[in-house]
Amino acid sequence: MYVSLSTLRIPCDQAPELVAAFRRRAGQVERHDGFVDLQVWQSDRDPGHLVMVSRWRDRECFKAYMKSEDHRVSHGRIDADLRQAIKLESLEHMHTYEVVAE
Amino acid sequence: MYVSLSTLRIPCDQAPELVAAFRRRAGQVERHDGFVDLQVWQSDRDPGHLVMVSRWRDRECFKAYMKSEDHRVSHGRIDADLRQAIKLESLEHMHTYEVVAE
Q1: B24 reaches A (C-beta below 8 A)
Q2: Which residues of B touch A43 (CB under 8 A)?
Q3: For residue B80, what are the domain limits?
Q4: Predicted complex: ipTM over 0.90
Q5: The domain spanning residue B8 has which CATH number?
């Protein structure tokens, strides 16, 4: 199994808006081959620190999604002001992993 | 749902030993109330960067486990040299989250 983890930082007062945006996401990633699941985590000590985690059958499935039109569209749906707030604070950081033990 | 994420850094040549240790873990966490699942992730760009993620029904269940004898014993089972290697490189960092969207 393959994992993509993106950390996001946003001003605390805009965090509820970002969480709401994730909750009404289009959900088109679900139809992509090899998609396992996706969760958004919010730090319980720092509400402005969020993590988006998606899991995939393997790296190839993840890469195929990242190159897809659905991925481009999913980013395009985020409100411009919100996108700007995410960018201003410290950008999105992505790490990828193989699941090696359970 | 509540998430605990610990990042570990270890010299690359000792990473396989650490992964093997996770694979033969005692598995006593499974019997604790509110435990959902646990995975160990290894960076595909940097094998010396590992992440241990456990998920729980809520924060209270996680805290109860952290105070338990099983948690203490699980750390005690790690080989002393390996534990030292983890410590030398940069310590274990823990972050905790609430799952806010899926």
Answers
A1: no
A2: 95-97
A3: 2-98
A4: no
A5: 3.30.70.100
